[in-house]
Backbone:
């Protein structure tokens, strides 16, 4: 096959590599599972668990489990779809940064700027439940030692 038959965008030179992850001589099933730690870390759910529980109308462990399972399943489906699409587009030539595989066009540059913006804005927001939990923790310790409840807005 010529390079023009493998290129995803004519004239841009981003060519497909062979899709060989499932061939016994090229890869193994353990290679597939080596991506799971990255997926688990990318969810970043832990700091959000307290906020989700507090926002439930009638918070119970069962309801938290349902919300968690739904959210993680949705994100897993999204990540898996994007991963498979990138792999079947570029084969073994795929890079860690999927957008780095695409040609330098206006659309891809807009996507890169958009992702940078989302990362800059979302990570600080993920820490809000951590600060609220820390405030509650310090307030509980203070109320136990001084008898004053500093986390209740009415008694400040």
Residues:
């Amino acid at each position: 096959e010529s390079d023009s038959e493998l290129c995803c965008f004519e004239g841009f030179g981003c060519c497909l590599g062979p899709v060989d992850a499932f061939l016994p001589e090229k890869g193994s099933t353990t290679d597939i599972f080596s991506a799971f730690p990255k997926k688990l870390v990318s969810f970043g759910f832990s700091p959000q668990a307290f906020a989700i529980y507090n926002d439930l109308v009638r918070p119970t462990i069962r309801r938290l489990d349902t919300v968690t399972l739904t959210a993680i399943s949705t994100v897993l489906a999204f990540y898996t779809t994007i991963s498979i699409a990138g792999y079947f587009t570029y084969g073994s030539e795929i890079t860690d940064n999927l957008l780095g595989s695409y040609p330098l066009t206006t659309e891809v540059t807009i996507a890169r700027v958009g992702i940078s913006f989302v990362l800059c804005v979302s990570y600080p927001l993920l820490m809000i439940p951590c600060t609220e939990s820390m405030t509650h923790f310090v307030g509980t310790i203070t109320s136990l030692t001084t008898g004053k409840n500093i986390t209740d807005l009415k008694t400040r």
